[in-house]
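Problem statement: downstream parser choked on a complex file, so we are re-checking the raw output for the fe (ii) ion run. The parser issue turned out to be on our end (a line-ending mismatch), but while we're here, posting the original submission so the record is complete.
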Amino acid sequence: MSILLETPVGQLVVDKPDRAHIFQRFQIDYCCGGAQPLGQACVAKNVDPQIILSEIVNQDSRADVNSEPDWTKATMSALVDNILNQHHEYLRNALPHLGEMAEKVYNVHGESHPELLNVLQTFAGIFQELDSHMYKEENILFPAIKRLEQGTIPPAAAAQLFGPVSVMEAEHAAVGAELEKLRSLTNNYTPPDGACNTYRGLFAGLEELERDLHWHIHKENNILFPRALAGTSN
Ligand SMILES: [Fe+2]
Ligand SMILES: [Fe+2]
């Protein structure tokens, strides 16, 4: 058991992806902060490590319900395509829609809930950051990773990926911090009593955005980037 407490949280999810549900529920960062050992991550979140360990044992004993393939075994190109089709596509659809809702909710309820201005501004920052972030991944880093795997650039060129990868990781961390801020501004995405359907829909949509981004960033930070930097498809 103590070995689990010393294992980085991101690695625990790479080993068994369904464990992400536990970390999401307890708000333990398994993507941007995935290098942190589980024991330390529990202390940082003020969560009893024994509770997390027993949740992991329970989760691991269940049948694997994660419908995704084992991305540590697929080709990097397949993982890149999955990230594009599943996560970037989701963001391209969800971000404008959430932006409109955030503006509408602020316009109607901003007077009685002044924190909605901060929600609107924080969301706008995330939107802008992700827009340029995805552009760089789609046009620079991901094509380079595919070329590396296809052997059209030599394995030694993997070293050239260090710079772009560290920029992407820093941007993930920035978005992760903004998501935490959004969670705290919205009282863990709890709408106030009597909130209208748009208000509720906005908070539910923002929580889904957080869940999807954590999973998306986990695939990049903990699986794709380490494999690309190792210059291998295995
Ligand atoms: Fe991405
Ligand atoms: Fe990314």
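For whoever reads this later: The radius of gyration is 19 Å.
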